[in-house]
Amino acid sequence: MARKRSRLTLDDLPDCILPLILSKIPFKQAVHCSLVSKGWKFCWTFAKNLKFPEDFFSSSRSPTEIQNIIDLIFERHSGPLEVFELNNVRFCCSSDKISDWIHRAALKGVQEIKIVEKVSEIYEVPAAIFLCQNLRSLALKNFLLTNLPDGFGGLADLTTLDLCNVDLNDKIVELMLQLCPGLESFTALRTLRRITFLNGIFWRDVKILKEFPDLEHMCVHKGQCSDTDFFRLDDEAILPLENLKWVHLNITYFHHPVHLLSCLFGIAPALKTLLISRKKGFNGVRAQEFINLAWNLQRPSTETKVFLSRCTANEKICVDCDLVNFI
Amino acid sequence: MEGKVILSSSDGQVFEVDMKVAMISQTLSNMLKDTEDTGSETAPIKLANVSSRIFNLIIEYGKYHVEAQKSDTSEPTADLKKRVRELVADDKDTLFQLMIAANFLHIQSLLDLSYQIVAEDIAACKDQQMIRQKYNIENDYSPEEEEEVLKLHNIFE
């Protein structure tokens, strides 16, 4: 059968279709497309994904230029946004600017945000992220998360939370889990490397530890707990935390300091540094004895060091077995 | 709903289609509900702007779609998209006709997949000339206008 072939072009499609197609093109190529013809001029403004790769920020442009470009994009962008991604942006853009963009993305119903920084532990997570009510997926790398915004009501749709090298504390973990019912429990946090237990009741959190196999750095800070809470580490049959290298305990009471050490050494075979900040003493055990006792224990390795420090508000003195300053 | 439904294409060919397959089209599903309500004898439903060639492809897609819903493959969308690509065999004309038919028949999943396919193909072009050539689009910018858009373009490059 001879087929009648009247070649169709994109222009023959119903009018509503072209913008829908163009909205699925990644932003960078969509900008390309605006050069094709008049009908395509604003096609990039429909792009659903705004991803700014690392080379966008590290190019020869000045910070002002970069900010103007992103401002311009948000100004002209029309329609909803699904994905917003920034890579290593913070060194050239202020946190206010970034928050402003996130706000705009939130108004466009953004569902997926990814912000990656190269340098760790300097920048606080922009609070605006927690106001993106349509957020389904959030990925952050190298941030501090010490506070959730006041009145944070949760993210009902959030299912994926990928925090890589984000310093955060137990309160936040707890709050996030409470307020984001869609989160698939802790599995979303498995990549966590650093955690700070802040004013927490530690024994409840001990179970959490087994959810973080990659944990490298643990800090228990001003906990209203005493060292007995750590003995549950044995009871809970927690698998060794193979990567845990750094532990800082700044807790109120040390009732059984030696038992504490053996528990910690037991779960952290790779422990390099244990820093203990004394608050109210070691239950009659003098620091010198404590260290002697600690030295008699089977340490994970000869590299393991125990530091004792006397903490006042502004001063932290670390003493490695030399206790002159301690007593 | 069980059974078969009889449909005829624009060139008069008659198709007997599984009800399950027909139901992926919102348009057909509405029509069938109407005829069910009135209890009238079902005469072939004429699809005035879908050729038999395209309709065959739609039925094929419908079968894949129904199958994909039953099985639990990990990447149902990626799998279906591959199937649609196979169906149209890299022929843009066929893809566009399929899109128009899917639009008429309200088959949202097929529409979404074909948008994605076109978007991927456009994104794979290395510059605007290649897109114009491939999709037979005339450059209707005047040199001045083109210069202006190019400026904007250069900001992002």
From TrEMBL, chain A:
Alphabetical list of InterPro entries matching this protein: F-box-like_dom_sf, F-box_dom, LRR_dom_sf, LRR_FXL15/At3g58940/PEG3-like
Chain ranges of the F-box/LRR-repeat protein 15/At3g58940/PEG3-like LRR domain: 99-191
Domain F-box stretches: 10-45
Matching Pfam families: F-box (PF00646), LRR_At5g56370 (PF24758)
PANTHER family: F-BOX PROTEIN-LIKE, OS07G0242900 PROTEIN
This protein's name: F-box domain-containing protein
UniProtKB/TrEMBL annotation, chain B:
Annotated ranges, domain SKP1 component POZ: 4-66
Annotated InterPro entries: SKP1 (IPR016897), SKP1-like (IPR001232), SKP1-like_dim_sf (IPR036296), SKP1/BTB/POZ_sf (IPR011333), Skp1_comp_dimer (IPR016072), Skp1_comp_POZ (IPR016073)
Keywords for the protein's UniProt record, in alphabetical order: Ubl conjugation pathway
Pathway(s) it belongs to: Protein modification; protein ubiquitination
Assembly description: Part of a SCF (SKP1-cullin-F-box) protein ligase complex.
Natural source organism: Cryptomeria japonica (Japanese cedar)
Family: Belongs to the SKP1 family.
Classification via SMART domains: Skp1
Protein name, entry field: SKP1-like protein
Source species, domain of life: Eukaryota
